[in-house]
Amino acid sequence: MQCDVLVVGAGPAGSALANQLARAGFDVVLTDRKAFPREKPCGEFLSPECTPYLAALDLQEPLAALGPRLVRGMSLHGHGVQALGRFRPVGAHGATAASGFGIRRTRFDQLLLDAAVCAGVRWLPRHDCLALQRDQRGRVVGAELRDAAGAPQAWRARWVVGADGVHSRVARALGVQRPTPWLDQFALVAHYADVAPRATAEVHLFPGGFFAATTVDASVFSVNLIVPRRTLRDRGSADWDQFVAGHFDRAPAFGQRLAGSRRTTPWRGIGPLAYTTRRQVFAGAALVGDACGYVDPLTGEGIYFALFGARALAEALGAALHDPARAPVALAAYARRRRREVGPRLWAAAALQRALRHPWLVRAFLQRAARWPALADLMVTLTGDAVHPRDLLRPSFWRCFRAATP
Ligand SMILES: Cc1cc2nc3c(=O)[nH]c(=O)nc-3n(C[C@H](O)[C@H](O)[C@H](O)COP(=O)(O)OP(=O)(O)OC[C@H]3O[C@@H](n4cnc5c(N)ncnc54)[C@H](O)[C@@H]3O)c2cc1C
């Protein structure tokens, strides 16, 4: 049981990475502890900047064939105020990046996985990664898996990649995972039917949390509630529907959106959400996607980070596999690229989370965004990933932003 690269986790990061490495001619094994299609608690919104990454994997047309819903912006609600922000086509990819998509993760992740298998990836569903194997010098040389029947399997690999999500066992085994106690959140997600579809994602802010929702596919309404984990302790005997409805008085516009609807899937929860990792590259191993650390559900950027990271890591591992002497330089370049692209966005998302704790600040922002649509567009375009926070320092960006019509 040997391969060039063992990728643990078949979410967007793992499947996209495995696909690119297999296309480059390497022997790749992709493993997930679940059978696919599998559910993943998510807002199910693909930001506009995902599009070029999907196109590079030849997935734009297959994705379109699945009939995802176009998402043209985000409506922001809170404190009785509503503001509408639209994605402006200002990124490197221009008009093609002016809308995102709403699509169920069961279908999207399956699409990515099928493409990886078509590219020649060996797929091991229901194989749980239990531990990493190391040589005498501490280099990671493989992993121990448990197959669907509960039997142990030892895999040797030149590289092992942890793409196993926010509670990454690979990151834990590498000893680099750290919780972020101040951001100790919990998310509940479910699908609803009979909610009037909209061409925008929705965020309904209230003190201490928010609802996020998107119409996905033809008419499924994907609902997320994100609250501090400690609120769960105060739930008492309330069931999940009562617990969620208990927040409607603080987000009445969202309560009205759900009036007359019906829930079609059970509530699924995930938390704590907030982790960071001290390092992402190691001798014989690397991390990608959520395994590198927490992504705030508020800004809906995790899938973009997963696709970006997968491409950057595929390039680095390609170089390392061709010429092992270059591995440290190539992997360090991946870590740097990731830090430059993702770091400021994570910082901005964390700053947003801190701002949410000050209702007066949220109200003041929403009031201004409602009055000046350009401000709402800017905020939403930033979270749509077409613009990097550092672009805000460039005069050319502002010229382009003013000229771009939503
Ligand atoms: C409530 C919520 C809402 C969100 N909404 C959005 C949104 O609207 N848009 C957006 O872009 N992002 C959103 N995100 C973030 C997004 O879901 C993630 O960033 C994205 O799924 C990361 O992809 P990934 O491939 O890194 O990990 P995942 O998609 O989590 O995939 C990891 C895979 O690893 C597998 N795995 C785990 N442990 C093991 C193991 N030991 N052995 C083998 N396999 C294992 C899991 O089964 C899973 O299939 C949201 C996140 C949350 C929590």
Quick overview of this protein structure:
With 406 residues, the chain is an alpha+beta fold.
Task: Please give a structural write-up.
35% of the residues lie in helices and 27% in strands. The protein contains 13 helices and 21 strands. The termini are far apart. Bound molecules: flavin-adenine dinucleotide. Flavin-adenine dinucleotide (FAD) binds next to helix 1, strand 9, strand 13 and helix 9. Residues 8-14, 31-34, 38, 40-45, 47, 128-129, 163-165, 169, 187, 189, 224, 270, 273, 289-291, 295, 297, 300-304, 306 line the site of flavin-adenine dinucleotide (FAD).
What fraction of residues sit in β-strands? 25-35%
Give me the Rg, rounded.
21 Å
CATH homologous superfamily classification of the domain at 2-71 and 100-180 and 274-353: FAD/NAD(P)-binding domain
Query: Gap between N and C termini, in Å?
Result: 52 Å
Shape: globular
Count helical runs: 13
Number of E strands: 21
Query: Which ranges are low-confidence, i.e. pLDDT below 50, for 5 or more consecutive residues?
Result: none
- In quaternary terms, these chains amount to single chain
What's the average pLDDT?
92
Derived from helix and strand composition plus strand pairing, the structural class reads: alpha+beta
CATH C-level name of the domain at 2-71 and 100-180 and 274-353:
Alpha Beta
